[in-house]
Every structure is written in structure tokens, then in C-alpha cells.
Specification:
The protein is 32% helix and 27% strand. It is an alpha/beta fold. The protein folds into 2 domains: 67 residues, Ubiquitin-like (UB roll) (Roll); 153 residues, Rossmann fold, CATH 3.40.50. The strands form 2 sheets. A 10-stranded mixed sheet has the order 6-5-4-7-8-9-10-11-12-13. It has a 3-stranded mixed sheet with strand order 1-3-2. The radius of gyration is 29 Å and the shape is elongated.
């Protein structure tokens, strides 16, 4: 009987200790107030812009802040892909931002926007990146926050693949034109438009690299475009009546491409 009473007393004592510790910790938490918000990894947005989006104020109870809601508010900016909010005890809050980086500029009829590798339409950054390629001849209506579709998404996929292919080839791409279902690429290394069509961009980038390094710069005025759509060969198109880069006309096949 005494053993049972002793066990009960020990249990009761343990519960009381835990309760006291819990109340002490809660009281300690309630005394913690926010002093500073620290922002990490923001480059397009300024730290002050992120803090404004977070909408938290010094003096707020640190454990009274809803971190999920703060993250959601920061993600309202189209340049923010993810925002991780953490309490940095004892007095600070940290916000780590993963931004959407523009992959290309979008030339619209009456404005200029940008787009990232996920196809999310963005504003043009205040500090405009002059080395970004430009996507032209866009007929679809697009606005900030939209996701690219159809041929515009094809252009995004091509540029994303070019980034993975290598910095030299990516840097050489100046413009991607949407041309009736075909992508037509203009580079800084050649005056000839390169027709790449749709899909199989890894192969076509290999052909484009071969064209730019081994063929471009010959200066033959009779050539009007280079066609990279055919498996295993690069085709140079001759001047065509009507002047469309994707028109069928006289062409010269420059051997097989391995």
C-alpha cells in the first residue's frame, strides 16, 4: 500500500514540476518582444521592401506572430517564389527569400514585362538586366502573375535548356521570336535567324553551337536562314520570295551532324 502511495506521490510531484516548467516557459515566451527583422537572400527586392510586405512591427510579442501568415504576405510579391520565416531567439525574426529570377524580357505591344524559368510573368526589375534575351512577336494577352502557355512556354523551355547547355550558348541568344508555331532564334554571333521549331531543344542547341562555331561568319549573302529542325543535319536556306524564315525554298544541307 505504501508503495502505491509513494508512486502516486511521485507521479503527482512530476506532474506539478512539468506544469510549473510549462507555465514558466509560457511566461518567458510572453515576455519576448520583437526587436528586429533580418532579411536574407533578397537581391531584386530590397530588405525594406520585404519588411514592408511582412508587416510586422517592433514591440510585437514574438510568439504571438503567425509565421505562416507572414510568409504568405511576403509571397504576394510576384518576384518572391518562397519565403521562410523563423524566430531567431531571443528577440529577432528572420525572413529568407527565394526570388524568381527573370529568364527573359517579354516585348508586348504596349509594354515590357519579364518571365522566369517556370513561365511566371513578372514585372521588369527596377535594375534591368541588359544581358537578358528578349521574346518577341507575342500575340497572347499576358499580365503579371500569369503562367506562360503554348508557344510562349516553348520559348521559356528553350531558354531554360540553353542555360543548362552552357553559359556561352545562352549568352549568345539575343532574341527568340514566336513565328506561327515555330521558334526563330537570333544570336549575337550571326545575322542569320535560326529556326528551331518546337521540342528536342537539347539536340537543336547542339546544332546551334556547331553552326555558330563552325559555319557562322562566312558572310555568304545568298543565305537567308539556318534550319535546325532536321535530325542529323543543319540546313541553310536560300533567299525566298516573301522573306519568311520558315518558308520552303532552296536550301543547302551542310552534311551530317553527330
Amino acid at each position: 500500500m505504501k508503495r502505491i502511495e509513494r508512486t502516486y506521490l511521485n507521479f503527482t510531484f512530476g506532474v506539478c514540476v512539468l506544469a510549473a516548467l510549462y507555465l514558466t516557459s509560457q511566461n518567458w515566451k510572453n515576455q519576448l518582444v520583437l526587436q528586429d527583422v533580418k532579411v536574407y537572400d533578397a537581391s531584386i527586392l530590397t530588405d525594406d521592401e520585404v519588411k514592408t510586405l511582412a508587416d510586422v512591427h517592433a514591440g510585437s510579442r514574438l510568439y504571438g506572430l503567425n509565421l505562416s501568415k507572414i510568409s504568405s504576405r511576403v509571397r504576394q510579391n510576384p518576384f518572391v517564389k518562397e519565403a521562410t520565416v523563423v524566430r531567431a531567439l531571443p528577440y529577432d525574426l528572420t525572413i529568407t527569400v527565394q526570388e524568381r529570377n527573370p529568364l527573359a524580357l517579354l516585348a508586348l505591344k504596349s509594354s515590357m514585362l519579364s518571365i522566369d524559368e517556370d513561365g511566371i510573368v513578372l514585372p521588369v526589375p527596377l535594375e534591368r538586366k541588359n544581358n537578358l534575351p528578349i521574346i518577341t512577336n507575342i500575340t497572347a494577352q499576358v499580365a503579371v502573375g500569369d503562367t506562360a502557355k503554348d508557344d510562349l512556354m516553348q520559348a521559356v523551355n528553350f531558354l531554360s535548356e540553353a542555360e543548362r547547355f552552357g553559359p556561352a550558348i545562352a549568352a549568345s541568344i539575343d532574341e527568340v521570336q514566336l513565328n506561327e508555331g515555330n521558334l526563330v532564334v537570333f544570336t549575337t554571333a550571326s545575322s542569320l535567324p535560326a529556326v528551331v521549331g518546337k521540342g528536342n531543344f537539347d539536340r537543336k542547341l547542339l546544332y546551334l553551337q556547331k553552326f555558330l562555331t563552325e559555319i557562322a561568319g562566312r558572310g555568304d549573302a545568298d543565305y537567308y536562314y539556318v534550319d535546325l529542325r532536321f535530325d542529323g543535319q543543319i540546313v541553310l536556306g536560300m533567299q525566298t520570295k516573301g522573306g519568311r524564315p520558315d518558308a520552303v525554298g532552296t536550301s543547302q544541307t551542310l552534311g551530317k551532324v553527330n
